[in-house]
Amino acid sequence: MFGSIGFTELILILFIVLIIFGAGKLPQLGEGLGKAIKGFKKSVHEADQIEAEAQAQAQQAAVLQSQPAPQPAQPAADAPVAEQPAATVTPPSHA
After folding, report:
1. What is the pTM of this model?
2. What is the pLDDT along the chain (95 residues), one digit of tens a residue?
3. Is the dihedral of CA 33, 35, 38, 40 positive or negative?
4. Cβ contacts of 65-72, under 8 Å, gap ≥ 24
């Protein structure tokens, strides 16, 4: 439908807009349209950036889940064990 708009049709549309809004309002309309397009592009760029960050976090989480959990450190069999002082036991006295 819109693929068949030619140069003549665009001139006609511009002429109708000029009649409706007047020559003084056209710069304001252009400025508003430009800001709207700029805001739309910024929103699209931010959405792509947020999506890329979420995808990176998902990949990082998948990598962390695929790695085996670290085993707790076990003391080596050859490692010296600190000796505790022996408790002195006194025999019971019979009095």
Report:
1. 0.44
2. 567 888 899 899 988 988 888 888 888 888 998 999 999 999 999 998 999 899 999 888 888 887 766 666 665 556 565 666 666 667 677 65
3. negative
4. none
Helix, strand, coil % in the chain, rounded to nearest 5: 60, 0, 40
Residue type, 32: G
- Residue 78 has φ and ψ, to the nearest 5°, of -85, -10
Contact at 8 Å (CB) between 57 and 50? no
In the block, tokens 């022996």 appear at: 86
CB 65 within 8 A of CB 57: no
What letter represents residue 64's amino acid? L
Q: What is the token pair recorded at 59?
A: 């990949």
